[in-house]
Design a protein that fits this description.
With 352 residues, the chain is an alpha/beta fold. The chain has helices at 26-38, 52-63, 79-87, 99-112, 128-143, 160-171, 185-197, 215-219, 231-246, 258-262, 275-281, 292-302, 307-314, 318-331, 337-346; strands spanning 12-18, 42-48, 69-72, 92-94, 117-122, 150-155, 179-182, 207-209, 226-228, 265-267. It has three domains: 12-95 and 230-262, Rossmann fold; 99-229 and 267-277, Response regulator (Rossmann fold), CATH 3.40.50; 288-346, Winged helix-like DNA-binding domain superfamily/Winged helix DNA-binding domain (Arc Repressor Mutant, subunit A, Orthogonal Bundle), CATH 1.10.10.
Length: 352
């Protein structure tokens, strides 16, 4: 009588996503692994990097494994590369992250609080999530009916150091934003450190906003306004969808619809100034009123001092002086620093 061997090896699902750094999707993958393992599947997790070649190498490793389904989030592949990737295996599901809405929420928050001179510091533009966040942010600004809304965009690493470097560039640029939107909390925290080093008050002198709602954002001083996207809920929902796909079940998971789960939420804290409220606090207040520090810088500039000389006198960095003088120049509707000094003298803001 012939004998049969019954395999007891569990069915397996493979995962591929970035698991390190500011672009990490580890909370999503952890929730998805927990979900599929609760349904009796084993798991194989492959970490991808932050470049297209690293993602292709990670997929090649995953695709050669014996998995019944794949949950992946490639962030750097083109649409053609992505289409070829999906076509090579059955039961491939992409995680759905609504980063367009993340960008739109950021723009709406800053516009709603009265900011019109805004800078956006993006991550590397070859990343899909960066492109989507920028798209949502820019579309929202363009749809806002205001002639005086200005935007400057900078590209930096999605890291503390990237945000710090971007903030240094902004402080010495010709554009003086009242608020800066960063594509990660790590970047915003790096920018906050530069502001504090330069004795710029956040949010009084400049407002900062991040993305991700990491723990350090709530513990910063001031606590960082940011945008939360529940990666764990996304992972749970997407994993259940993949299990249904493998089992041939045509129904939505019981946890809810993807739109509800992926929807990002605003986490407003204390790093963004409400310009409407601050204007109403003082009788006759004006968004273009010259601050005491700006008046001080104009006074020394009227005496022929350079930015470096003023920085030595006031005990701050030269970039801080440049920032305050450019802010004063904008408020006085002046063409340059000399013109701003002349208008300040005429208006009796400073004495000669």
């Amino acid at each position: 009588m012939p004998s049969f061997t019954v395999s007891t090896q569990p069915r397996r699902i493979g995962f591929m996503a970035e698991l390190m750094g500011a672009g990490s999707l580890a909370p999503m993958v952890e929730a998805a692994v927990k979900t599929v393992e609760s349904h009796g599947f084993s798991t194989l997790v492959i970490a991808s990097g932050g470049r297209a070649d690293e993602e292709l190498a990670a997929w090649d490793t995953l695709a050669r494994s014996h998995c019944e389904g794949f949950l992946v989030y490639p962030d750097c592949l083109s649409n053609d590369q992505l289409a070829r990737l999906i076509s090579t295996r059955k039961n491939v599901l992409l995680a759905n992250l609504n980063d367009v809405q993340v960008g739109a929420i950021g723009a709406l928050h800053l516009l709603g609080l009265g900011h019109r001179q805004i800078a956006m510091v993006t991550g590397p533009v070859h990343r899909c999530r960066v492109q989507h966040r920028s798209e949502g942010f820019v579309q929202q600004l363009q749809s806002y009916q205001s002639d005086n809304t200005e935007l400057q965009t900078l590209e930096a690493d999605l890291t503390f150091e990237g945000g710090a470097n971007a903030m240094n560039l902004l402080l010495t640029s010709d554009f003086t934003p009242t608020a800066v939107f960063f594509h990660s909390d790590q970047m915003a925290l790096g920018a906050l450190s530069i502001c504090q080093k330069n004795r710029l008050r956040v949010p009084d002198d400049i407002s900062l906003m991040g993305c991700g709602d990491i723990l350090a954002a709530s513990q910063a001083r001031p606590a960082l306004s940011t945008i939360n996207q529940s990666l764990a809920e996304v992972g749970t929902y997407t994993a259940e969808r993949l299990i249904n796909m493998i089992n041939g079940v045509v129904r939505e998971p019981t946890t809810g619809s993807t739109t509800e789960l992926v929807k990002p939420t605003l986490a407003p804290r204390f790093s963004v100034l409400n310009k409407h409220r601050s204007a109403s606090l003082a009788e006759g207040a004006d968004n273009n009123v010259i601050s005491e520090r700006e008046r001080e810088c104009l006074q020394w500039a009227a005496m022929g001092k350079t930015s470096w000389e003023i920085s030595q006198i006031l005990g701050v960095t030269e970039s801080t002086i440049i920032y305050h003088l450019r802010n004063a120049t904008r408020k006085l509707d002046a063409a340059n620093r000399l013109h701003a000094v002349a208008k300040a003298l005429k208006a009796s803001i400073i004495d000669f």
